[in-house]
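Example record for the data management plan.
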Amino acid sequence: MMDYVNAFWVGGLICALVQILMEKTKMMPGRIMVLLVVTGAIISVFGWYEPFQEFAGAGASVPLLGFGNVLMKGVKEAIKEQEFLGLFSGGFKAGAVGTSAALIFGYIASILFKPKMK
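Corresponding structural encoding:
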């Protein structure tokens, strides 16, 4: 039960901080998204993301911080295998499945629900 509670409050805290950032700084959403991905990657470099994810579960892995972590894990693994060239291919390889799924399911949803242009 505590796993659900921790995921809820950590994910909610991340979302609340992002909302405050949007309201108080007038940053564009795209820049905030990039900031979250980069923050997740930086936290991953220092090795802090794994304990954070064990504590928060989906509250840490679902937001864009988790995507930054996935990219950085892919880069680390690819560097071990391919050395310098892994720096360029690791993030793409690690993030490909999630990105592809988002595109495919988004496309299917657009077919099923017939979006209207504004």
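Summary line stored alongside the record: Residues 2-113 form one domain.
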